[in-house]
Amino acid sequence: MSPKTTPVERSLAGFFFKTVVLFLFCVIIIFMRIDRLLCELNIGSRSEVKVFLKKGLVSVNGVKVLKPETKVDEMSDIISFQGKEYRYRPFVYFMMNKPAGIVSATTDASCKTAVDLLREQCIHLYGGNLSGIPVKDIFPVGRLDKDTVGLLLLTNDGEMAHNLLSPKKHVPKKYYVETDFSIDKDKALMLEKGVDIGEGELTKEAVVELLSEKTCTITITEGKFHQVKRMFQAVGLKVIYLKRLSMGSLVLDSALKEGCVRELTETEVSNLCLKI
């Protein structure tokens, strides 16, 4: 006959059991296989990283790892490949000063895309080595027309992108506009109050700041197809140059030349997350 256990012993046994189960859950579910992590870091394909592992080119926290099924904590472990250290970042954020002629897409059969340009710029920025940058998962947040220039955010953070683009969030987007004819105060007031662009209801209220006879800035909280151009067309003006200056709290870096990219700072990312 087995001895009876006390309530304290039963409680400790239950705690121990739950702890073991939680640990196993973390190892099996939360921790990532090293071969998958190396793929996520853009170090190589699944077959390529298996070869790298067999050759002893990969280490975790200073210890060589040979088996592709080895579990690692991607958020804290230090991964080294051929002597270079990599830190896993689930999300990356890039600011692009988009030039004219670039399509705001990931792929296009006939035109150069924003992701194509990002890849080129990253190769330039990081000395030809894209390891650690998940370029294949990055996409532009929203669209700028092919001939529109300025701020374009590129990321692999789907939730942030959704929040920035959601009509319910009313995220402000500011543009610099040049027109063919004079923008008088009456037309500016019409744009601010809302105009008919053929979608059954007026555009939402905007903010217009006149800069000169044919230039202004306009801030809108919608993102309809060709919206700014159509708004100005509704008041008898043609947009001949359009540049996005900001999106939410993110402002185009004045030092960033057209066609160039840079990663967002931690402060810029935090502000975007907080204010949407």
Explain how this protein is built.
This protein is of the alpha+beta class and 276 residues long. The protein contains eight helices and 15 strands. It has three domains: 7-86, RNA-binding S4 domain (Structural Genomics Hypothetical 15.5 Kd Protein In mrcA-pckA Intergenic Region, Chain A); 93-163, Alpha-Beta Plaits (2-Layer Sandwich), CATH 3.30.70; 172-247, 2-Layer Sandwich (Alpha-Beta Plaits). Strands 7, 8, 9, 10, 11, 12, 13, 14 and 15 form a nine-stranded mixed beta sheet that branches. A hairpin with an 8-residue loop joins strand 8 and strand 9. Helix 2 packs across helix 3. The chain is elongated, with a radius of gyration of 26 Å. It starts with 6 loop residues before the first helix and ends with a helix.
Quick take:
The protein is of the alpha+beta class. The protein has helices at 7-30, 34-40, 46-54, 114-125, 158-165, 185-193, 227-234, 266-274, and strands at residues 32-33, 58-60, 63-64, 71-72, 79-81, 84-86, 93-98, 139-140, 149-155, 173-179, 207-212, 215-220, 239-247, 250-251, 261-263. It has 3 domains: 7-86, RNA-binding S4 domain (Structural Genomics Hypothetical 15.5 Kd Protein In mrcA-pckA Intergenic Region, Chain A, Roll); 93-163, Pseudouridine synthase I, catalytic domain, N-terminal subdomain (Alpha-Beta Plaits); 172-247, Alpha-L RNA-binding motif (Alpha-Beta Plaits, 2-Layer Sandwich), CATH 3.30.70.
Order of helical and strand elements: HEHHEEEEEEHEEHEHEEHEEEH
Query: Per CATH, what is the topology of the largest domain?
Result: Structural Genomics Hypothetical 15.5 Kd Protein In mrcA-pckA Intergenic Region, Chain A
How many β strands by DSSP? 15
Share of helical residues: 25-40%
Poorly predicted tracts of residues: 21-29
What does the radius of gyration come to?
Answer: 26 Å
Our count of domains comes out at 3
Q: Name the CATH homologous superfamily of the largest domain.
A: RNA-binding S4 domain
